Amino acid sequence: MAKVLFSSWRGRLIDARGKEAADQPELTELNLPAEVEGTPLKAFIGWAGLVVVDPQVNIVAALRHYFMAVQQASCGRCVPCRIGTRVIADRLERLAEGKGTEHDLTFLASLGRLAKESSLCELGQSAPVPLLHALEYFRDDFEACLGSSKPIPENNFTYRSLLTAPCRNGCPAHINIPHYIGMINGGFYEESLAIIREKTPLAGVLGRVCVHPCEANCRRLLVDEALSIRVLKRFVADFARRNGSSRAAAPTANSSGKRVAVIGSGPAGLNASYHLARKGHKVTIFEALPVAGGMLAVGIPSYRLPRDILNEEIELVKSLGVEIKLNTRVGKDITFEQLRQEGFDAILIATGLHDSATMGVEGEDAGYKGFIPGVAYLRQMNLNRELELGRRAAVIGGGNVAMDCARSLLRLGLEEVYLVYRRSRAEMPANEEEIIAAEEEGVKFCLLANPTRILAENGRVVGMECIRMELGEPDSSGRRRPVPVKGSEFILDVDMVIPAIGQVADFSFLPPDSGVDITRRGTIAADLLTMATSLPGVFAAGDAVLGARTVIEAVASANKAAEAIDHYLRTGEAALPEQMIMEDFIEKTGVYDPAEKPPLIGNRMREKESSLPLAERLKGFSEVELGFDGPPVALREAGRCAACLRLGMAVL
Question: Which of 383, 388, 385, 381 minimizes the C-alpha distance to 408?
Fold first, then answer.
């Protein structure tokens, strides 16, 4: 493992220059990867200081490259950042050429402090930090440049930089959140949507169902409340839709003559197809269901995701020339081998998880009426297929699927709906908004309980036996393990039981000798950078690889797959562009620091999203969350953004 020679990262000083290797800490202690795409890290320069691994790195040369990158990233809205960093870059250039003077060092320190203290955004405030650290701890490197008349040797190092932000880094798809919010703040709503659609066509979908991990990385959270990033995304998507200006991002390449088969039209399949079509490839999606959208269409109730929103964004994908073949199940209507034989140059498996995990309790496999797995229940409901409903139901699970099942059952007219979960409310994996909504709407939480057997009479569910649980030691997930309390069994008087404890994949369409490896978890084995499988030309994305995850994570994996497939089709090798490689590297560094005390003015609380009155919700499947009440609210919310842009540069 790489050893740290010097680090000033986040104020923690490590100076092991001249010490034995045993006394040098490892990079992992700083949460920094030791390499970038197989190339050892020599140094890292960024918003929180310096990290040096290789003694051959010349700090002056590295900072010169760093401030050149800062110049390219600076928006130019304030003089200290735009002009100040330009002057810093020029002075570092003089020093690197051996033309510097002692005055340059004094000037750099003064200008660095000025830019840090008076720039308007985080980029200008944080960019001088590594310079100021270097002037303090690497004075010899600077003084060696004074009057030497010889340029600094570059040592053939490679410099890769990336502009990010805590929120953007927290988004699995790395959507440029500060940029699109900045456009909203300026009143440029269509331009804001265009920025989002460079990453995904599903802006309106994500504006409704994204679990918004970006908001947990918002620095405003450290002073008042996080920005309502998800609802701002929804706002621009809805604005464009109402004004007839919603469109896909423009193609980036002419027709390549290459054909790609995509199995599954869920968020991963749609997103990958969108990007591949933009890159000039002919894409055909094979969908087993009678509707496109995968779990977006059949796994999420319409009160959370109206079908017209989803369908219009599917049309955006189709407008790029993507063909979607519905009611076409790979493995039945066409075989996997036929796809390979019929001229497709690459295949993407994006089938998601459409089967339910089993509970392992007595009676669940007996075929009782009233027992239906959560995924199957949601699919039948969303496809408007007839359901034999009872009067009282028990939904087992604490995730979003369980919440969707429970909330939709109330809308279908059931008298009572219990949510049975084996841990406490605090451990529930569902979004807090979903939990609160379920409570408000009347779902009865039966916590610290677990089913033990399904009770039936004449082939129909008449109840469910449960046992009380208590929390023991933490398990591999970090949550406390639920332990049964002996002798605490009780009966729930229900005539419907709907388990929603997890989802599994169905890869029966893959022949045993297909060459596509399956993991012990029952997912497809794929490289998590390129999403390439063990079979050349075959890729996989979304839940089929990741397991039961979120829509935005499916989008992120699909974006990687699309880039890797494009590179494969053009070169015969699966690879990602430099931007994505650096995004993966920077993601591991921890851009958001929960211990930070940002210099932001607090008490600017987030704007609230409108919602359907509680009395109206259970009358049908009308959308519950309604977004912001017009542009003034969105503008106020966007105005809370502090534009926390940060630049990181790896020396390789």
Answer: 381
